[in-house]
């Protein structure tokens, strides 16, 4: 249980740090948010729990392919906000786009030989 709380605490600290940094400097906050900290921590936790190189390789490979469909969200949201859309609408549209692209990736990926 302590291990689970440690993992949750470290993850929460990263989220709070990003939001606090972004308040002072949006660019630096974006840089920190774009770092693959969650992926690296996830790999550390997975390795600690399993010590399975095959599982780790599959996880890292699948993470790469799932990052790609999330990227258009970071273009859609600022485009909508710059055109006057309300924040919540832009965020919702970005999330819906990302979900649709994730579904497309989970459908198309295996058809191209990707193990997701």
List keywords for this structure.
116 residues; mainly alpha; 0% strand
Please provide a written account of the structure:
This protein has 116 residues and is mostly helical. The protein has a domain at 52-115. The protein is built from 6 helices and no strands. α3 (37-50) runs antiparallel to α4 (53-67). The two termini are 29 Å apart. 3% of the residues are buried. The mean pLDDT is 93. Keywords: Membrane, Transmembrane, Transmembrane helix. This is DUF3147 family protein. The chain crosses the membrane at residues 29-47, 59-81, 87-108. It comes from Sphingomonas zeae. InterPro entries: BV97_02767-like.
Task: Describe this structure in a few short sentences.
By secondary structure, the chain is an all-alpha fold. It is built from 6 helices and no strands.
Radius of gyration of CA atoms, rounded to a whole number = 17 Å
Strand content: under 5%
Q: Which spans of ≥5 residues are poorly predicted at pLDDT below 50? A: none
Helix content: over 70%
First and last CA, distance: 29 Å
Mean pLDDT: 93
Say how many strands there are.
0
Count of runs of 4 or more consecutive helical residues: 6
Largest β sheet strand count, sense and barrel closure: none
Shape: flat
| Secondary-structure content class | mainly alpha
SSE pattern, N- to C-terminal: HHHHHH
């Amino acid at each position: 249980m302590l291990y689970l709380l440690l993992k949750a605490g470290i993850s929460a600290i990263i989220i709070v740090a990003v939001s606090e940094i972004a308040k002072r400097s949006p660019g630096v906050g974006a840089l920190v948010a774009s770092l693959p900290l969650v992926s690296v921590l996830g790999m550390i936790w997975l390795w600690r729990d399993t010590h399975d190189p095959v599982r780790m390789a599959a996880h890292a490979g699948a993470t790469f392919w799932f990052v790609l469909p999330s990227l258009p969200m970071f273009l859609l949201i600022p485009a909508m906000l710059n055109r006057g859309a309300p924040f919540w609408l832009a965020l919702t549209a970005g999330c819906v786009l990302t979900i649709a692209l994730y579904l497309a990736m989970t459908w198309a990926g295996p058809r191209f030989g990707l193990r997701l």
